[in-house]
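Request from the bench team (R.T.):
"We need a structural guess for the complex before ordering more adenosine-5'-diphosphate. Sequence and SMILES attached. Just send the tokens back."

Command: build protein-adenosine-5'-diphosphate structure.
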Amino acid sequence: MTSSQIDNNPIRQSTGGQTADSQPILEVRDLVKDFGGVRAVDHCSLDVMPGTITGLIGPNGAGKTTLFNLISGFHKLTAGTITFLGKRIDGMEAHETFHAGLVRTFQIPREFKYMTVLENLMLVPANQEGERIWASWFTPWRIAPQERAIERQALETLEFLNLDHLKDEYAANLSGGQKKLLELGRTLMAKPKMILLDEPSAGVSPALTDLLMEDIRRTQEETGITILIIEHNMRVVMSLCDPVIVLSEGRKLMEGTPEEVQRDEEVLRAYLGFSGEASAAAGENTAHETAPNEAEFGETKAGA
Ligand SMILES: Nc1ncnc2c1ncn2[C@@H]1O[C@H](COP(=O)(O)OP(=O)(O)O)[C@@H](O)[C@H]1O
Ligand SMILES: [Mg+2]
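Reply to R.T.: structure attached below.
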């Protein structure tokens, strides 16, 4: 990444200001979450390095979604700490982590079906700065320049995602894949430092999944935003994520390159031992006869 790229890119974000590249952008330490008698997250510790697309995989019930809910402030943790950009964020509410630059896709309200694509994007900063928009009722001369800047940012974001030809289309008329792109665009409007994506490929056709993956990759490369992705589709994980963190029974089982993770026997056991989905997907082979190949993981898509 050259500095001219940085300067020219309208939606480029810092990955964390003065944070050196060797410092994690997100540090989870000894995190515990109990739901009544169920321990969903069990002394989980993991780091996410800035500028990575980190994959989070694991069998159903491993605690992946709960971990996202804890990081983004949707759930109160039972114990442990979460540090983002060097600051403790455990105990923060969802809107506070949002303002800190950590955006989970559903922290942004779902798209408004009968607003245009452009309007949907323009609403995000308004949501973020609700009071200021409110204040502009009383100081109307301020709203025009602010709105123009937001519109410019929205148009640039649509161009970036190759959605600009759809800017006047109602969101309701978009395909599943285009809606995912719109969601990514709406996320970018919040100018996050880090994005948490929960199964971006779920409900998206294989062809559009490739486009979506390419856009996620380009978003990381050109904006510097750190991305943490929960994904069941191993084809997506293998080609998009590095490193990959494997969660099992509420804690980190291992971390490595996609290749390392796919070769790891413990990972295979975690998948096979839990739900039986992987062995079902492997057809007539028994668990032990089956190599940890792509198909096996790829079919472990219960959430999709
Ligand atoms: N809101 C909740 N109330 C009670 N139990 C929950 C809740 N959310 C998740 N769990 C339980 O926590 C465990 C982990 O779930 P989850 O985080 O959804 O796993 P994953 O996303 O990896 O499939 C499961 O046993 C699940 O039943
Ligand atoms: Mg989940």
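Two things stood out. The pocket of adenosine-5'-diphosphate (ligand 1) is lined by residues 35, 38, 40, 58, 60-66 (CB under 6 Å). The first helix runs from residue 3 to 8.
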